[in-house]
Specification:
The protein is mostly helical. The chain is built from ten helices and no strands. The chain has one domain. The chain binds protoporphyrin IX containing FE. The site of protoporphyrin IX containing FE has 23 residues, from helix 3, helix 4, helix 6 and helix 9.
Length: about 210
Amino acid sequence: MARNLFDPVNKALRRVPTWSVYLLGLLPLGWISYETLTGRIGVDPVRGIEWSLGLWALRWLLASLAVTPLRWIGLNLIRFRRQIGLVAFGLVLLHFASWLTIDMGLRWGQILADLYKRWYILIGMSALILLLPLALTSNAAAIRLLGSQAWSRLHKLVYPAAILAVLHYSMVGKVYTTEMLTYAAILAGLLGWRLVKLGPKRLVLA
Ligand code: HEM
């Protein structure tokens, strides 16, 4: 087999247990807790926690989408893909839970009003709903039950989910910051690369 630049890294990664991704996923939580306890999270800690969880969720979601393109250039992280996706989903759930609890205080009337009033929340919610079947089927039993082709097709829901997530982010601030545009560009790059390499038909159906 032809050698590539990443061979030593791939070899070393084969010895890394897949559960270590979950440990890595705990780091943002440690960081957010540290920033909260030391008062560095911002003048509005509720918003700071909510925003940090949202940003980390987006970063992990984009990381899960980067696994296949990285494989094309020789870096093999396929073994860790399921764990990366699950960490992303866990962070989305925590972001959602932070809105429901520390922001809305579980006041259901206000929650419904917020959903109706702020469109970006509905869009974030749609992303979460699209990710739900992916998280529920990220196990060997579900792959066996669905068959690998149906399973891969189902997991293409991650594309619209990621697009909705970036749209949600872009609507929160109402201004296009460099950070927001960077995430949008990374997503466009990752999806565009797939489109060019696989073609529209395989991108959606394969
Ligand atoms: C894939 C799903 C989601 C992702 C990746 C995501 C990501 C983000 C990001 C990056 C931000 C802005 C952070 C910043 O500006 O620094 C944000 C803000 C926010 N998100 Fe999400 N989000 C998702 C789903 C949701 C859901 C399901 C809800 C609630 C139903 C939600 C509610 C909010 C709220 C309330 C804010 C803050 C808005 C404000 O400051 O007024 N998000 N989210």
